[in-house]
User: Fold this.
Amino acid sequence: MSDNKGEVVVRMAPSPTGYLHVGSARTAIFNYLFARHHGGKFIIRMEDTDTERSSEEMTTAILDALRWLNIDWDGEIFHQSQRFDIYRQYAEKLYEMGKAYYCYCSPDELDAKRKQAQAERRPYRYDRKCLHLTREEKQKLDDAGVPKALRIKTPLEGIGSFNDIVYGELTRDFTELDDWIIMRSNRKCTYNFSCVVDDHLMGITHIIRGNDHITNTFKQITVYNAFGWEPPKFAHIPLILGKDRHKISKRHGAVSVTDYKKKGILPEALFNFLALLGWSPGDEREIMGREELIKAFSLKRVSATNPIFDSVKLEWMNSEYIRRMDDNELLDKVRWVLIDAGLTTRLSVESHWHYMLKIVALMKERVRTLNDFPRLARFFFTDNFDYDEKGDKKHFKTPEVADRLNALRDKLSGLNKTFEINEIEKAVRGLAEKLNIKPALLIHPTRLALTGLTFGPGLFELMELLGKEKCLSRLDRAIDYIKNKFRT
RNA sequence: GUCCCCAUCGUCUAGUGGCCUAGGACAUCGCCCUUUCACGGCGAAAGCACGGGUUCGACUCCCGUUGGGGACGCCA
Assistant:
């Protein structure tokens, strides 16, 4: 298992107790980028030992999110829930080595001690009561069937330290560490212990994880030391904070990768954005593709400060990706959003692919997320829209507007052979000249009549795409509407 | 409460003692382009938390203060 001499092996170890949130996704990205940069391996290990909270669905959901982000991993996925025996074996080995001891204290008892320590303003440390039990006392407790957990012996004094790739030398007084439990009374090992056993067995060379694990690292190092194993290198990466500057969590609204997918964010954009949270290439590049990121990535350039997740910038980056994306590829994604919005059907998209492509090309410049398409391009799919309220007041102001639109209608219906952009523009501008008004006075009401909106793509290209029939009928509708409005 | 960590524009960041009159990006605000919106172009406003040192010289090094974050489970 650990035959990867000289090679980089990293891992991502999510616990399947919820959807993949952006913090874990970012950890995955850093690990992935690091592995690919060095031509090493990226392993996934499901930390599903908490059988109460873990679920199969979440495992699937996390993997799906990773696939969506186009993050691939090496080898089979490990499940800690299938490795309880291994951990137990190692825990018992430690006991036999005299580096661990059984503790019979009840959770209530421990809880009380912990509270007392806090009240007395001193750090809590297990008092080693059970370490000093005599053989007879232990026997008695065992006979009585009192549950026992296994604790690791941590040095009573001295300084523990390790060299973190991001934070540099990190130290902690051993008196701050206690003889923590490595195996529960139900004989299942705890996270900090199983984690070390796995990382060692799997030949992990670099552990890249959130800086909320720094305390765990000190604990885990005592396990490496107890076994005489060489610890891997550690890189604790800054934590992503929400707008309120707290560790990002559910109460920040959209936090899972799936949430952003639903919001119409492109995976490439999210990947790029997350890679730049706490890391930068050192030059002024921002829009960077996967290969470019792999090439540039280095743990040494990871920042030590916790960044705040700025969804506005994410959306900007997303708009950049949408704009640069190939039309066919984009339409392939946009169609589902359009179908979901009830604006079209699968069949219709397929039979009108070429036409749809034109719509996408026209809209992609003014859209930030995929979800903007149904909102801003609605008029291409249905006649069923209202006039924008402000636009109505501004552009359908007088009965005269109806007359102008009527004149335009007549002129357009005269365009028999072709209904294409140049002809349309000529017609509109020509009419404006004839009526001796500024073209804008004709253009704005027309746009409102045809789209219900006061903004959007260029009017003439829009009209060409809409086609003559629709333009005429919508002008008619607007003319009626305006006349109705001013009827006394 | 205890321990650890962090500190450059509102936000993401560049910056490793003189290149800084602190650079870029998002957001904001002008102007230009223009039928609108968006794009694009040009420009503005906006920051080294504070106080001590060290040094000929500190955004950069040290100490303190303040502020922020994280960890303190028979959860992971």
About this structure: The beta strands of chain A are 9-12, 41-46, 78-79, 100-103, 149-152, 159-164, 168-173, 181-183, 206-210, 233-237. Chain A has a mean pLDDT of 94.
